[in-house]
Amino acid sequence: MNSDTNKISVPSFSQIRARLKNYTMIFALLLIWIVFGFLNQNFFSARNLSNLFRQMSIIGFLAIGMVPIIVTGNIDLSVGSVTGFVSALAAYFQVYVFADMFPALLPGASPATILLFSALSTIILSLLVGYLIGCLHGYIVAYLGIPAFIVTLAGMIVFRGGVLGVTGGENVGPVNDAFKFVAQGYIPIPIGYILAIIAVALIVYQQIRRQMNRQRFGLERDSIQRILFVSLGSSLLILLYTWTMSQYRGIQNPVLILFIVATLMTYVSNNTRLGRYSYAIGGNREAAQLSGINTKKTIFYIFSLMGLMSGIAGVILAGYVGSATPLAGNQYELDTIAACVLGGTSLMGGEGTILGTLVGALITASLINGMSLMNLDIFWQYMAKGIVLVVAVYIDVLSKRGAKS
Amino acid sequence: MQENLILDIQKINKSFPGVRALKDATFSVQRGSVHGICGENGAGKSTLMKILSGVYLKDEYTGVIQFDGKELRLKENAIHEAKELGIDIVYQELALVPKMTVGENIFLGKEPTHAGRIDWSSLYSRTQEILQRYSLDINPQAVIETLSVGKQQLVEIAKACAGKTKLLILDEPTSALSEKEIKILMNTVKTLKSNGITCIYITHKLEEVFEITDTVTILRDGAVVTTKPTSEYTNETLISYMVGREMTERFPKRDPKLGDVVLRVEKFTVQDPHNPKKHSSHDATFDVRKGEIFGIAGLMGSGRTELIRALYGEYGTKLSGNVFINGKIKPIKSAQDAMKSGMFLVPEDRKTEGLILQQSILKNITIPSLDIFSSFFRIDKYKELKTAQTYAKKMAVKAPSLYVKASTLSGGNQQKVVLAKALLSDPQVLILDDPTRGIDVGAKYEIYKQMVELTNEGMSIIMISSSLEEILGMSDRIMVISEGKVITVLDSGEANQEIIMHHAVGAS
Ligand SMILES: Nc1ncnc2c1ncn2[C@@H]1O[C@H](COP(=O)(O)OP(=O)(O)OP(=O)(O)O)[C@@H](O)[C@H]1O
Ligand SMILES: [Mg+2]
Asked: What is the tally of structural domains in chain B?
């Protein structure tokens, strides 16, 4: 039973096509950028790019949380409302609670200290609320066995009600400057470069370690092309991004946070049991269960993570807008799911990556940004978003069909 | 092409990434015959049939196929086109709509209509006609999911033959059937033959080959070894053609050294989840000793699978009874608890319960045992790979690498992956639910050898099997179940097929 005799080394056409498939959405993104670049010369200005990435970050956080949810074969329709609810709570506490509480608690503290305390408390509170909402959804879905679609549809309605309740149907604000800084601020340019260099160093270190490990365990080393492509490619992207942003005001705080969170979550989904279990559950729940995986606990964790991500998104949203509005986060769930699908996450479960999904989020954000630059009416933006979603998924279906066999 | 040939296959080659599934396969099929195809797991049988039935298109393989006097060139919409030409296939996995009736399924997509509305009375009377033609005792209005798997399989055949089928391909149709159902299926195939329909019959069960086929083609590693009339084979030559060497015995020698009782089940009663008034297991008491192979026999539907699933914490609600492992009482509420107490179940259906088909062999093997390689923060992927390699090798899994998806493996290799997964989790009591279903003779022997080795190392094995031969050949003791009740536990010395059947039908 020797399998080596059957080996053929030249990749067939279908294999090449299958490999290209991974990059379809990146090509789509580049295409969109080129088109907008032609139509409007401001599109590629550092200032606009800076805005574009900042705008994308909120959906980015939600999409990062949504990937594991969809991978386990679930869905979360509540994320828009939860984000809105968290942002409303954040604004409310800033304006009506902490603004009076901290000066009373810390008599004699400088105004700056008070701002800082108020901002930090708001952030902690927001993340906690988001997390607890996620836990609640997770508990109902996993342990009470109600389908996620129903539970989170209810959540969507309930927390939209929550937003209206907290805001009283009006704008609540403004939030203080320290709090705004999280969403609107920039990393000082030199520090930005230092961080970029650290990131590059980590990438190179990781590659070297990988090759050494492979050698140690008697595996073939990766091909030079692969090593160069991965390490040089990602390093260049990071440096290019840092440089471009430095032409404006530097790396945006929320984008940096997004980058860190995305890296962590990619790590979790590839290198930990939680990640492995979620793909297993999405791939075949029955088999996963019989393999001794605690499927309920896994799903509970996944939803609690989603809650935490909604919490972060809520903080960024409140800081970005500077106040809370009754419509905050409206329809974000749709943008989020669209980003996941564009990024190659299968709604059937079992497949999807964080990185792909971020590309998906970038595609939708670029469309909106480009069209608003051109002063197209909002209705065009809606239509274009919908059409792109269908077209993109169709391309994906086509390329999958080509690569099946 | 000669008039009396319905199918002539010339030099078919088909490759998948890393595998040449078919190499110059060449043979022909006589009109009106039952043509058997035998070969080890992964020999390329299913792949060849998928070419014939249009799953793979003309430009995905090389070679020439003549069907019914014309060259077969299937392109767009090939599965439908093959059907139009008269080639139909029945897979091992059922492809019926469970919530629809027999009639609705048979006429799915070609319902008889009258003035634009479905003509139900015609649909059911024509269904009745078809069922009668093949002497099938099935109610046309029965809902599919209420039928036994065997009956469903027969409906599938009736469905395939409802059209203008000239060539019917049966790819391992009996692997999920009871002995009785197999008899009915055999008769159905004979009826088809007498109606002039040619059948290609793939099976790993040699009895069936000799009972039903006229000619047998043997495939090995994608190439045709020989095609001869069935009467020119003996059991031994057939096997040696398939595995490429002599096989003198079907079961390995073994001299069991039994130790203390490892697993004890006492008065175990489980409520049937589908019918709360019934017990799927009733008052079951038995024990399994260290190093023992404990066979469980019973007819299909006797509650064998349900009993061990319930022991494993994954079926029904336990009403009473206890499970002891090494004398300690274990409350087992889920597969997780069962594994912690030292059991591991290899489930009956590898595709829907055993494997995550879209994931790699590697991930499938290690998923239950990740704790061995993991800290809270990290899975040690290198250690994982090394370990998985060891176990895949131990089970002789045949694949281009451990990174290929489980879905691309042949049935037998999939089963080996599930077994590798079980071994890695290193249980004290390994529960095998029909472990050699759909597995070739050579690989069966490998699995038996593994079982012997494991018991020699002190593992206990509970084995459910539909094959009495296997039960008798491997077990130290045999428990016979009927309607959820333990009828008797026999020592292997005092058991034979008749005695087991006698108990299994509940005659005592
Ligand atoms: N879609 C696929 N992608 C890659 N390899 C495949 C694919 N389908 C089949 N193979 C490989 O082709 C070979 C032949 O497989 P095939 O399913 O035809 O075997 P088989 O003779 O039907 O075996 P079994 O008796 O186990 O069903 C195997 O090595 C299998 O791994
Ligand atoms: Mg097969």
From this structure: 3
